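Here is the promised in-class demo. Please do not try to memorize the tokens; focus on the logic of going from shape to residues.
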């Protein structure tokens, strides 16, 4: 059986007893990074949370080697007590563990996901946004047209959006938001549950200036975009379909609204005509 084990975001005391008990009985640990997992187990052992350092085998399982690793150890997942651990937080969310979930479902292998720390829900709970409706997007594309179009779509959504961002790209993200909507309300959580945890909430332009002044971009970040004006403030899919436009022009507008490719929108329009 395969068990997905959440790990602390930073504070070791956030490990659950159920996670500790599961770790004690596993013969194989699949890890996003074996060094990080070994370090975690060492600290848990040194602080008396984990009575003995686990004797199971440690293997890396990440976005680069996941498919190949399954060819090597797939049978063991069904026969042994196997655990998968991300570097921090809930596994299988914007994480290579998704490959393992799909594998277990395809092969009818029993698996379980333990509840535990999550940067997404922790940041949203701290944000003060009160709608209760939010989209978790994860990481934006790194650059180019895909990044621009994804950010445009997210800023147009009528609900809050939760993003992960690397420290070396956070300033760029805020610059991109300021260029589009300098007054957009932003909540940013830095180093969740760690010693230097900080919460920020203010308009994008003010937040960018503040972080530059404080030189505070380093660290792990969760960024939440305040809700946009919503679909009602501009063209809807129905509006575009009702317009007397050439199919190619209509397909481009539909692609921007829906996030689909221009080609798929165009093909659907041709079939419907």
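The designed amino acids, position by position:
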């Amino acid at each position: 059986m395969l068990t997905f084990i959440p790990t602390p975001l930073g504070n070791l005391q956030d490990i659950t007893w159920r996670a500790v008990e599961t770790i004690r009985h596993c013969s194989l640990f699949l890890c996003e990074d074996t060094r990080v997992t070994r370090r975690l187990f060492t600290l848990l052992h040194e602080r008396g949370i984990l009575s003995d350092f686990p004797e199971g085998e440690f293997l890396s399982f990440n976005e680069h080697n996941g498919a190949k690793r399954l060819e090597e150890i797939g049978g063991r997942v069904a026969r042994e007590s196997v655990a998968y651990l991300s570097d921090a937080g809930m596994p299988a969310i914007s994480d290579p563990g998704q490959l393992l979930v799909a594998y277990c479902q395809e092969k009818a292998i029993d698996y379980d996901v333990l509840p535990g720390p999550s940067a997404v829900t922790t940041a949203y709970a701290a944000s003060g946004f009160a709608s209760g409706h939010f989209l978790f997007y994860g990481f934006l594309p790194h650059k180019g047209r895909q990044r621009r179009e994804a950010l445009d779509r997210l800023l147009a959504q009528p609900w809050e959006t939760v993003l992960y961002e690397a420290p070396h790209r956070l300033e760029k993200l805020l610059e991109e938001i300021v260029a589009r909507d300098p007054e957009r309300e932003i909540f940013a959580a830095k180093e969740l549950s760690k010693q230097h945890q900080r919460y920020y909430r203010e308009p994008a332009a003010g937040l960018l200036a503040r972080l530059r002044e404080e030189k505070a971009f380093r660290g792990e970040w969760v960024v939440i975009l305040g809700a946009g004006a919503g679909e009602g403030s501009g063209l809807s899919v129905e509006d575009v379909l009702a317009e007397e436009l050439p199919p190619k022009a209509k397909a481009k507008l539909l692609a921007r609204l829906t996030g689909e490719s221009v080609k798929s929108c165009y093909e659907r329009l041709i079939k419907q005509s």
